[in-house]
Amino acid sequence: MTIALTGATGQLGALVLEKLKARVAPDRIVALVRTPEKLAGSGVTARAFDYAVPVSLAPALDGVDTLLLISSSEVGQRTEQHRNVIAAAKQAGVGHIVYTSLLHADTSPLTGLAEEHLATEAALTESGIPFTLLRNGWYSENYASAIGGAVAAGGFIGAAGDGRISVATRDDYAEAAAAVLTGEGHAGATYELAGDEAMTMAGLAAEVSRQTGKTLPYRNMSEADYAAALLGFGLPEPVAQMLAGADAGAAQDGLFDDSHTLSRLIGRPTTPLSETVARILG
What we know:
By secondary structure, the chain is α/β, with parallel strands linked by helices. It has two domains: 3-136, NAD(P)-binding Rossmann-like Domain (Rossmann fold, 3-Layer(aba) Sandwich); 141-167 and 194-257 and 271-282, UDP-galactose 4-epimerase, domain 1. 42% of the residues lie in helices and 16% in strands. The protein contains eleven helices and eleven strands. It has helices spanning 13-21, 57-60, 78-92, 111-127, 144-153, 170-182, 201-212, 223-232, 237-250, 261-266, 273-281, and strands spanning 3-6, 29-33, 45-48, 66-69, 96-102, 131-136, 156-158, 165-166, 190-193, 198-199, 218-220. It has a seven-stranded parallel β-sheet with strand order 3-2-1-4-5-6-9, sandwiched between helices. It has a two-stranded parallel ribbon with strand order 7-11. Strands 8-10 form a two-stranded antiparallel sheet. Helix 1 (13-21) links the parallel strand 1 and strand 2. The chain is globular.
């Protein structure tokens, strides 16, 4: 069986690739990337693959049995890009697609992010190709810049209120993806994946305060005020709006899940927040 993954040099994809290499022979792995030269000497087959160039996609999927479709990072363009990949997978005869969606996408209050994931899930259903949904929750590493900024500024800001956020590391999610790609009986399944430990932003502030020895409070803001603050930090408007909207959704527990599905899939507890904070602080 040949396993292919998109975005194989990205932040999540590179981790999945390494975990796959530990589970199956490298010659069974196809890494789909914009620049195959980056994987020279890796032992896997690297093929040029660009979501936005439909004509190139089906040939790159030739001979692939299972495809991990890692969602595009280009918010606003994902639906079209993912549909391109799914159509190419059907044309190439791919037998199973595993897709990285959003936690509780069908009921999520993070509507700005959920919309494109739901459209992709619908496209998968329409394709007739057997698929598995990995509905990933929030990455612990998403807070790296916030932690650095808070240490420099003397506190955290956000719009997440007292919402519970079940964070896990990219490494945790990558391990789950590798387990599904190399395991049996996952076709048709939807996995709501999230960390065992739920934090609030005040809890994150307390943990960073503990590890740094500084008092770093959390100040909650309205979604609009937080978006304006992010714009003031130099973020592009679509990114600022997306992040502020995600915080507003988190305030409604949109990033909370206590099913422990992720830790069951990987066979161990998810990485504690304290470890991620320590790593970010260096």
